[in-house]
């Protein structure tokens, strides 16, 4: 299932994360983390000089780094 990480899809994204996380209390992801990773990826694409028109369909990988700081690739 593909869901664009945009504010209008907040409820759908939260439902998917809740289902995936289940009863887990650690190593979970939430909506704020998804939005943070999305913004980080957009900045990276911008810094690389990739025009917005060419960003549709771009994929990013979120990896939690040291001290819980996210790294977006």
List keywords for this structure.
mainly alpha; two-stranded antiparallel sheet; 40% helix; 2 helices; 73 residues; globular
Total strands: the figure is 2
- The overall average pLDDT, rounded, is 84
Task: State Rg.
Answer: 13 Å
- Shape descriptor reads globular
Q: List low-confidence stretches.
A: none
- Most strands sheet: 2 strands, antiparallel
Fraction of helical residues: 25-40%
Strands of the largest sheet, in order across it? Answer: 1-2
Helical element count?
2
Can you write the helix and strand succession as a string? HHEE
- Distance from N terminus to C terminus (CA atoms, Å) equals 21 Å
Structural class based on helices, strands and sheet pairing: mainly alpha
Residue share in β-strands: 5-15%
The total tally of domains equals: 1
Question: What does this protein look like?
Answer:
- This protein has helices at residues 10-21, 31-47, and strands at residues 62-64, 70-72.
- It is mainly α and 73 residues long.
- The chain has one domain.
- The chain has a two-stranded antiparallel sheet with strand order 1-2.
- Strand 1 and strand 2 (70-72) form a beta hairpin.
- The mean pLDDT is 84.
Short overview:
The chain is mainly alpha-helical. The protein is built from two helices and two strands, in the order ααββ.
Helix/strand layout:
Elements: H1 10-21, H2 31-47, E1 62-64, E2 70-72
Antiparallel strand pairs: 1-2
């Amino acid at each position: 299932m593909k869901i664009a990480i945009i504010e209008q899809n907040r409820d759908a994204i939260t439902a998917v994360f809740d289902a995936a996380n289940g009863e887990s209390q650690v190593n979970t992801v939430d909506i704020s983390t998804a939005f943070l990773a999305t913004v980080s990826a957009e900045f990276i694409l911008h810094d690389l000089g990739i025009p917005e028109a060419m960003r549709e369909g771009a994929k990013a990988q979120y990896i939690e780094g040291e001290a819980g700081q996210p790294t977006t690739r």
